[in-house]
Amino acid sequence: MNAGHILIVDDDTANIRALASVLEDRHEVRFATSGRRALELAAADPPELVLLDVMMPGLDGYAVCRLLKAGPATADVPVIFITSLSSPEEEAFGLETGAVDYVTKPFSPAIVRARVATHLSLCRANRRLRDENDRLESLVRERTRKLAQAQREKMAALRQMVAGVAHEINTPIGVALGSASHLGDRVAAMTVRLADNQLRRAELERFLASAGELAALLSGTIARAGEIVQCFKGVAADHGGLRQTIALKPFLEQVAESLRPQWEPAGHRMAVDCPADLRMVSNPAILSAILEQLVRNALEHAFPAGRHGVMTVGAAAAGPEAVLLTVADDGAGIAEGAAGRILEPFFTTRRGTGSVGLGLNIVDNLVSDRLGGAFTVASRAGGGTLATLHLPARTPPDL
């Protein structure tokens, strides 16, 4: 299927018939007998190539060529002059006006067919190249837009993280400063009374008891700040390690066993559900850190005090190129209203017990940024919670 038609322009109909007989078996051919009519036809439906006579009444071929090259719709249409003017000067002038070739009359049918085929091929190749360039430029623009959007989102997340850091650390620091200031005032007052020989035993005992309480409060709040800092370090931790082929069943069994001191004393049980032959290529250090965080999260949130439960660490193939890792529990499930926010940094339903709300956010970042996967958490239909890691069977080497 041809991309367009060939326009033959000549005031001599005999020449038009001769050229048409050479080309019409391979191309759609249209014609005009004047320069003005040629321009009208070209503007209405641009041809793929123009065969143009030079010597015509009214607008001659050179003028028609210049006007075609000046029009946005026809500027790229190749023009071949076919004329009886055979001097080198005329040929040079024709090429200077924008023509791609110059054929003298009487013409050879084989030469005309060859020249037409050559310039149509070049024109189509240039068109494909322009289309490909346009496509690539469009892709670059879209990619640039997405990168700019991603940068804006990262900066927004950074601002949120900074605000969260300030909020979380400000509380224990404020308590510690207040306690230290109060203790300093008490010490100063006791020093004055001691210097004036007015200090009594009962008063000293009350001071010592109060000082002990303040010291314990200081110690606790500073320890709390340290725990928060450790959580923040987990967000940016490298975790090290290289990609390895991992036999998942013994790997999961090892992770479960390493966590026994955390789940066994509370009366919980942990099971591993994984095919014996399932393997993946990934970073075992990162996988271990993720699974440990998910188990700790379940121990913290899934089971009310005194309730025993079962946690299951599992793995299954998800097609030839993906693996599903899961951590499930039969605990309390996700609190109402929390399902859409549990991956947000600093969101927690147990802030009063010391939870910072970064554990699942750290997991989400590790899964996406370091393992090239996706992470979801949802309540199970039968009760409890299911955390799912959808991971590539081979972690991309550039992560």
From TrEMBL:
One of its GO terms (molecular function) is kinase activity. Keywords: Coiled coil, Kinase, Phosphoprotein, Transferase. It comes from Azospirillum isscasi. Residues 126-161 form a coiled coil. This is histidine kinase. Its EC number is 2.7.13.3. Residues 164-395 form the Histidine kinase domain. The modification 4-aspartylphosphate is found at D53. Residues 5-120 form the Response regulatory domain. It catalyses: ATP + protein L-histidine = ADP + protein N-phospho-L-histidine. InterPro entries: CheY-like_superfamily, HATPase_C_sf, HATPase_dom, His_kinase_dom, HisK_dim/P_dom, HisK_dim/P_sf, Sig_transdc_His_kin-like_C, Sig_transdc_resp-reg_receiver. It comes from the Bacteria. Signal peptide: none annotated. The keyword Coiled coil applies. It holds the Pfam family Response_reg.
